Amino acid sequence: MPAGMAQVPQDAPLSGVAILAEAETLSARIAAIRASVGRTIFGQEDVIDQTLITLLSGGHALLVGVPGLGKSRLVETLGVVLGLNAKRIQFTPDLMPADIVGSEVLDETDGRRAFRFVPGPVFCQLLMADEINRASPRTQSALLQSMQEQRVAIGGVEHALPRPFHVLATQNPIEQEGTYPLPEAQLDRFLLEIDVGYPALAAERAMLLATTGASEATPVATLDADGLLAAQALIRRVPVGNAVVDAILALVRGARPESATDEPIRKHVAWGPGPRAAQALMLATRARALLQGRLAPSIDDIAALAQPVLRHRMALNFAARAEGVAMGDLIGRLVERLG
Predict the structure, then answer these.
(1) pLDDT tens digits, residue range 269-290?
(2) What domains can you pick out in the chain, each with its CATH number?
(3) Interatomic CA distance for residues 20 and 238, integer angstroms
């Protein structure tokens, strides 16, 4: 391993040349994925890249944006492009846990009765949880085990979910009537919180012309489940420099009021990110580097991913809300200190 690189856990040792060859192959596939997604999703390059980073890192993402910005269409498109078995759940207040994970039914055959497990929609490879905050905490907790452990327990029996398994959830930041805030434990399971904003003028014009004609372009499959799993394994073998590891630790630990040296953090943050935030940054910075055709992550990758990794893993206290302090500004201060 080159000098200055931190040892990275891996299933099977690979030489730098082998990693480079696999990385170049993956970069070509990522370019094809981007091109295919671009046939139906106009603009939103940052959103697409952050979603791909999430999937390449093996994580889940929470897409936050007002209705009509193409969040659902993006998830559907990625399911086709990545060759994954995708399903969708529309979360509502009356949705029950069994509606997600499945349930046991009583069958009678030849006079014999036995329970049979009927899998729910969570048994897929790419799950779209639409308006996830509209479901009750009881139902949201049913999804929590699936996101973290990739299995569910029904009637005392555990059932493994397909691999890979990813949840891409959507949330409307404006309409809060009839919604339930996501528990902090569940928010922490999302690798990134992706802010979906309005498209640029040129992108919106292209979308308007392409989606109101007699026919629309369709995405093309460019990868499959095995290819995505191989890409995720490669991400974990990408070398990470000691300077990057130290910067990740400094950023995460600096966001905790107990260990922060920055006065605004100690004054305005109620609680900060846990170790899972550092793990998310380690994986996401590697994925972003390969997404841009680089073999190793840099400080710039940390700076670019600090907001989507940290903002849902921190909370402002009452003083911050009273003074109008924004979470993004506090994270921005931490990023500036990275140098």
Answers:
(1) 988 999 999 999 999 999 999 8
(2) 1-93+121-237 (3.40.50.300), 240-339 (1.10.8.80)
(3) 9
